Amino acid sequence: MLFIILSCNDNSDDSVDCSTYNYSDCNTREPFDGRIYINLSINSENPAVPITIYKGKLEENDVVLMDTATANKYDTLLPIDNYYTVTAKYKKGNTTIIAVDGGKISKSKTKTCDSICWSVKTASVNVKLK
Fold it and tell me: Which of 130, 129, 126 is nearest to 38 (CA)?
């Protein structure tokens, strides 16, 4: 009984009852991948939009993925704890427009009772036409 009391005292959130805690919302496995969500403009002039995902800033030119999106929303898994830049290439008449945005995928951990619970902060980028 003494062990249970000590483990609850180590709890970072004093409002949690360790004897009845439901771990179903606690991911105890450290994550290594997270999602990036990309918002695009798909229309009659641009039914398929080439996208490029770079690790880091655009200037670093570290291409991670090249694909063609055919829907307004695109997502993929990428390694965590990195900043990513996304470009989308559109046509407007005879002009090419390149939209650019970026975001970071990261992870965090919280000590709950005798476990470490992990969470992932996804990245959401907007490369829509204005």
Answer: 126
Q: Give burial (CB, 10 Å; 0-12/13-18/19+) of 27.
A: middle
Burial class (CB in 10 A: 0-12, 13-18, 19+), 64: middle
The domains located in the chain, with CATH, are: 2-126 (2.60.40)
Quick: pLDDT tens for 48-101.
Answer: 999 999 999 999 999 999 999 999 999 999 999 999 999 999 999 999 999 999
Return d(Cα 109, Cα 6) in angstroms, integer. 21
Distance CA 106, CA 119 (A): 9
CA dist., res. 63 & res. 78, Å (int): 12
What is the Cβ-side half-sphere exposure of residue 62, based on CA atoms within 13 angstroms? 8
Across the chain, which distance is largest between two alpha carbons, in Å?
75
